[in-house]
Amino acid sequence: MLVLLPPSETKAPGGDGAPLDLEALSSPELTPVRTELTKTLADLAADVPASRAALGLSRKQDDEIGRNAALFTSPTMPALERYTGVLYDALDVRSLTRGQRARADRRLAVGSALFGLVRGTDAIPAYRLSAGSALPGQPTLRALWKPVLGPVLAAVDELVVDLRSGSYAALAPVPGAVTVDVLSERPDGSRSVVSHFNKAHKGRIARLLATTTAEPGDVVRLRALLRRAGLHVEHDGGTALTLVVPAEHATR
């Protein structure tokens, strides 16, 4: 089972790993695009106003541009520890046992605008680049990534659970992947889409899938696994699942 996670805008600072080695990252087929984007982003950092415009940053976020300037020299850390925020707080990889962490590193991968796809143990620096960013002189990120990342994901010979947000899933859709929508249900039975806290619920799902000893091979077995964990999961056919959360729990 491969679980695809979205990245986060926020990144943990620092690290104790050696500087970025693009050729050491998993999925070496992605190295040429990774190299092009990383060099472009690092060079762009020399022009602060252009970086702000391309990355959608304010003056108060100039430290993010500084991170990009140091892409090839700053320390690295494992990808699952680099990304922070609501989803990654719920995933909480640092609290996993050694065996659970080994499964998480094997099963979890993060969609990245800069690196395309990183596995849990891939050593990466802090950076700033979003799926919707437009780098000067470059095609759209989707145009760059889809031709090379698409085949890599299509070649995965196991169940793929795609928890990426829409903009990152669009970089390289995975035909046949299981997706999960999160809905809030009120006492009167009416439902609405969970927005911000959608990330927390997907983080909990990711933690469950990262640590279970089960190996669901299709959407039906995955649904059964989630239901055994006490989640209210609906399946109306196809590869889409719906997690229904009581309204009073939707913001937790």
Overview of this protein structure:
It is a single chain. The strands form 2 sheets. Strands 1, 3, 4, 6, 7, 8, 9 and 10 form an 8-stranded mixed β-sheet that branches. The chain has a two-stranded antiparallel ribbon with strand order 2-5. The protein starts with a strand and ends in a 6-residue tail after the last strand. The chain has one domain. With 252 residues, it is α/β, with parallel strands linked by helices. Helices cover 37% and strands 16% of the residues. α6 (98-107) packs across α9.
For this entry, give a set of tags:
252 residues, alpha/beta, 8-stranded mixed β-sheet, two-stranded antiparallel ribbon, 10 helices, 10 strands, 37% helix, globular, YaaA, Peroxide stress protein YaaA
